[in-house]
Model the fold of this input.
Amino acid sequence: MYTQQDERRLYEQAKHLLQHDAANTDDTITQLREVINYADWKYYVQNEPTLSDAEYDHLFKKLKHSEEKYPELITADSPTQRVAQGLSERFPTVSHLVPMLSLDNTYNAEDLTDWDKRCRQLAETDNLEYCVEPKYDGASISLIYNNGNLSRGATRGDGVMGEEVTANIRQIKAIPLSASLVKQGITQIEIRGEIVIHKNVFESFNKQRVAEGLSPLANPRNAASGTLRMLDPAEVKKRGLNAILYHISDYTLSAGSKRPKELNTHYGSLQWLYSLGFPTPAKEMKVFKHIDEVIAYCHEFEGQRDSLAFEVDGLVIKVNDFALQDRMGMTSHHPRWAVAYKFKARQATSKLLRVEFQVGRVGAITPVAKIEPVHIGGVTVSSISLFNEDVVREKDVRIGDTVLVERAGDVIPYIVKPLTELRTGLEKEIKFPTHCPACNSELEKQQDEAAWRCININCPVQVVERMMHFASKDAMDIRSLGAANVQKFFDIGLLKDIPGIYHIDWDRVKGIEGFGEKSVSNLKQAIEQSKQQPLSRLLFGLGIRHVGETTAKTLASAVSDIREFYDWDIEKLSTLQDIGPKVATSVIDFFARKENREIIEKLEKAGINLANEHKGEQQTNGELAGKTFLFTGTLSHFKRSDAETIVEEKGGSILGGVSSKLNYLVVGEDAGSKLEKAKKLGTVNILTEQEFLKIVEG
Ligand code: IVH
Done:
């Protein structure tokens, strides 16, 4: 759709529009629409943002203001018209131009070989070409463009009738509101595709649900299809859906027009759609002549499924030539010229044997379902978190239930639902403990939290978990003091608390099986070295609730000694970057507790560094002084931790999330919700790795 020349022109045009207030309104409005559509295409279809979010926002506002001044110049395909308008009561039912059929499934090489034989018979030729593309696991949709404008978007429904969800579809920026189809001689076209949700977006969406006490959705497909049916388009907009279009089901040529030559094959048609700005798997599709090549590709691709940005549950193999497709026809259920090759199921059923209640480092009690071990997608699952009591109640799972378990992508396994139809009546309700399973203290639940909590600071499980965390790699990094050794030392009474790590009775350690002279000396050395760790690691290692690595760094840079926090209050803490009232309250609570102050005094006596000699330096020195950064997605030039160190060495700081305090978001591959959020915020500069390099290299 855009030649290199177009791209250069539009980029220059964008920069020009950003710098100048052009005089001619009619022209300016057209130019603004052009560059915004181009920016949307780069961002959503090509995944290569061209403009920073602030720039994009500026252009968008400019267009909006101009259109407000000259409403007669507003067109339905203007990017401003994606803006959500009002609520709808329910969705009207509409008929599809062509029934939306399903696909026949294959599961192995033999099935595919059989299908190939049938294809050759039906097509009456041995000269077949197969096009192979991912089978996206989302919600299927049909889009109709009339005279180049998106006129209708509908869900699949029962295949004949679907729900008209145009207002919601218009919120999905990957879907063009208009395209130059008329120039191609097409007056009407129906395109099929899938609404998908990026795995990262899905993951943060689920985290949010769990934090709100709701049960996480089992897979991105449910999230996509649920979102598509939301009544408020503004909500749909917030969810950051994406789309992939994979089939032209119908089109009408204008009188006297010749069919574009690309519309002779499936491959050609998707490349053609892509060139017109539509999100198709143009880059992912492959053409093969022999089924053996198709089979080899299916096996190869299955191995890569976890590395894809969207959930894919198989591949779709289609006869490439449209004339042959027509000859082969359809059944009432599926086309005969296409078949799905399904990857190994990531769902299985199993029996819920019992529920154990685990105590976390900060006392939260998590119900964990113990199920009869099942294989799902190459791993054996026997333990599944049920998150909290609200989730258990909402799903109504009971002990003895047969449960459906799913492992979507690299996401941790979930219990999707109990199969209530298999209940015998002997299933038992899951009873939540009133007392801590480790120390028997009475559990508490705060009003705004879903989790029950053990608040006994001396609860043995929490004590051990805290020590494990303190010694861990990202905290004090005491290499030889891993989780197993901490547990062992605790069990035999060698280690009781964090300061005890610095007073280990070495004579007793020497007597423990597996501890030779060498390992004792390694452990001694690692413990000794940890005394000089920077204050940020100590702050992280102390396990203060809501204080992760980044927050610990922010806290450390604000003081010259950890004990300064004894006199801080919530207001003072809230002035620090990225620290909100929740974190601030937790920090204040931690330092107010007598037992925590005692730990700190003991650590000082043992010679542990409590000081930060570089207080405030990050804010005042270096060329990135006062600038905040965040990295998202997979970086190809650096390890993320190295990139963060570069920023910090130059005086900048790393934030934990996207907020109004963030100056730069550096975007690697497969960036998800952070990028979406930053775009929405409109104040964050979005950088590619190259742009980041330019900044750090001055
Ligand atoms: S072709 C007549 N191609 O899978 C055209 N479908 O299980 C039939 N799907 O209903 C569809 N990726 O929602 C096709 N690349 C792809 C697809 C795909 C996902 C969905 C589609 C279909 C379902 C069948």
User: Anything to note?
Assistant: The chain has a mean pLDDT of 88. DSSP finds 25 helices and 22 strands in the chain. The longest strand covers residues 347-359.
